[in-house]
Structure formats: structure tokens, C-alpha cells
Amino acid sequence: MSPDPRFRPLESLLRQHLDNSIACGQELKRLFGHLDTPQAHIAEIKRMEEFGDRLTAEAHRALEDPPYSELIHLTQLWVKHLDDIIDGLNNTARVIDIFTPERAEPDAQRILAIILEMAARLAVEVRRYPGNALDEVRDCREALKRWEEEADTIYHEWRKSHRRHSSLSLISELDWTEILGLLEATTDACYHSAVLLERITRHHLRQAAF
Fold it and tell me: Gene3D superfamilies, from UniProt (predicted)?
């Protein structure tokens, strides 16, 4: 059975999906810098998230074709984690839209910067898929793990410090805690995308050995 010519190959869809997520992260960075005029940025982030949803749906259709159908469970999980990245960015913008903060918390900006670094590093390996080298994918996964741990530390230190001496109102503190939590969870999605890609690469190399 050959791939359906009406649909784009999975690797093309995933590259476009992650590139879209990186652009969405850059738009969220601009939103943090323009909280006094947020609506255009929030609308653009939502548009990118909806485009990501369409790419995800198309990717799920592509999974029915060989060679992806031979490893459909792992590849489905990989697609889900990639989709979770842009969902986390859009959910962050949605919370900002609801509570309209006057200024961005520096720690939220730090975690967003980490997400952009993680996504850029992951994009290098996604562009190589399905011809990834195991050593390079492992290096990518280890680098993303360090960034994920850094973001986790920032989030938990922020929570501890603001419980002791916060200059924010209680409502603002709760809202920023939610935002930092969403961003921290997005770093988890980046890391787990790399974990799944490493597992998929191992499978491909085992298959090639036979």
C-alpha cells in the first residue's frame, strides 16, 4: 500500500507544526511586551493555535499511511506532545486576556525564553525526521531535559518567594501562578516530544538492521 497522494507526508506536517509553534511563542513574547495593547497579539496567537489544530488533524490522517502506520501508537503520542506546545502558548494568552495584567512577571518571560530555546533545538531534529541519528536525538533530549529542569526550578522558586513576600494582589498572584504553571507544562511537552522522537528513532534503526 502506497501513501495517499491527496495528503502531505507526516514529516512535512510536523516541521510546519513546530515552526508555527515557534512563531506563536515569538508572538507571545511580543504580547508580554505590549500588555497595554494585547488584543491583536492574542488574536494572532489564537489564529496560530487553530492552524496548529488543522495541522494536527492532517497529521493524524497521514498516520494511516505506511511507513507511519507501522508505529502508529508512538507517533500519535509524539504528534500529541507537539500539539501540546502550541496549546500551552495559546492557553497562556487566554489567561492574560481574562485577567489583563499591567506588566509581565520576569519569571514568566524567563520560562517563555526557555520554551523558545527548547522548540528551536527540537526543530533541528524534527527537520531531520525520519532520518535522525540516534546520538544527535539523544543529545537533543538531554539538552531539553536540562532546560525543562531549569523551568521547573524557576516556577517552584517563584511560588515559594511569592508566598513569603509578594508585592502582587492575591488575585494577580493566583493568575500569574496559573500562567507560570501553563508555561512550565509547555516545557514538559517540549521535553516529552524529544523523548518520543528518541524512541521512534531507536525503532527505525532496529528495523533498518533487519
Answer: Phosphate transport system protein phou homolog 2, domain 2 (1.20.58.220)
The Cα–Cα gap between 52 and 46 comes to 10
Cell numbers for 138: 539523544
Backbone angles phi, psi at 120, to 5 degrees: -65, -40
**Contact yes or no for 76/31 (Cβ under 8 A):** no
2 domain residue, yes or no: no
Q: Is residue 72 part of a domain?
A: yes
Taking only the tens of pLDDT, the chain with its 210 residues reads: 444 545 689 999 999 999 999 999 999 999 999 999 999 999 999 999 999 999 999 999 988 877 776 688 999 999 999 999 999 999 999 999 999 998 999 999 999 999 999 999 999 999 999 999 999 999 999 999 999 999 999 999 998 887 655 677 777 888 999 999 999 999 999 999 999 999 999 998 988 777
The values of phi and psi at residue 2, to 5°, are -95, 160
Q: Are 170 and 120 in contact, with CB atoms under 8 Å apart?
A: no
CATH of the domain at 136: 1.20.58.220
Structurally, how many domains does the chain consist of?
A: 1
Domain ranges, residue 21: 10-209
Is 48 inside any structural domain?
yes
Please check whether residue 67 lies inside any domain of the structure. Answer: yes
